[in-house]
Fold:
Amino acid sequence: MADVPDIDRLTAQAAAELERAEDQQALDGFKSRWLGRKGELSLILRGLKDLAPEQRREIGVAANQAREKLQAAYDQRKGALEQNKAVAVDLDYTLPGRTVPRGGLHVLTQVTDEIVRIFYGMGFEVADGPEIETDYYNFTALNFPPDHPARDMQDTFFVEGDYLLRTHTSPVQIRVFEKRRPPVRILAPGRSYRNEAINARSYCMFHQVEGFYAAADVSFADLKGVLVGFAEQFFGAEAKLRFRPSFFPFTEPSTEVDISCLLCGGKGCRLCKYEGWLEILGAGMIDPEVFRAVNYDPERISGFAFGMGIERLAMMKYRIDDIRLFFENDLRFLAQF
Ligand code: PHE
Structure:
């Protein structure tokens, strides 16, 4: 009589072997060892005739069940390995990942933030006003006579009726003075619009930062001190300022301030129109007429105001020779800041 085969032990052994099969070759080996015509289970089934009759049925059933079980496990394992292979073909884990492009602040925003930070250190608060203004705030309250050429179609974009796009940030002076009593020390950055021919130095839309200070006993020396202090912090000690007498309806006396051209070192270039200097701001002592328009007493209150072109400052600081670059949104330009 032959030994009674231990089908449970054999099945466990086969299952463990299947677990370890990682490729088609191992699977093939498994198949012929356990499921093939010369496999272990076939041998058992073929050897049934040598067993005691009372064991034949029991062992036969068990061997057939084991065979079915192992066949199913084999099919599953085979399927799983094929799927892994498909995934491995699609995914190359050695490829670098897709990067998410990082945004950044526009260079004009960065420059504005820096200007605000410097003046904040000198005691200025930030305010703003609308870009669509009325004739009153943009001109009349700022002491522009009714026939002043700056009001004419050449410079101003009119919206409709009394509305226009502000041509400077000076109307914020009026809006703040109407709401506040002196002392006030304000910085007002924002957009301005002028219907100008577009070239390397001028654009129809640009940014200004208005600064103004009204209190008892504010002098021109205060204005000068603030502007020179700003230029030193913003540009560094090598920057020189040049004050030229000028005229604005809302300041008296008035000045235009140039900075020595840092692009060409004063030798002359496209940016400074070959003059060695670039105008960056207008300023002056606030005209008594402006104070009267907002019910401040010009006998008791004096003040200064200045308006700086932010693009001009940025161009000088970063040696940019064309204002149009700021608005073209060319990432090769923008990504440099
Ligand atoms: N608003 C003037 C301009 O746009 C600049 C300026 C501001 C001048 C404040 C004097 C005082 O040209």
Q: What stands out?
A: The mean pLDDT is 91. The two ends are 92 Å apart (CA to CA).
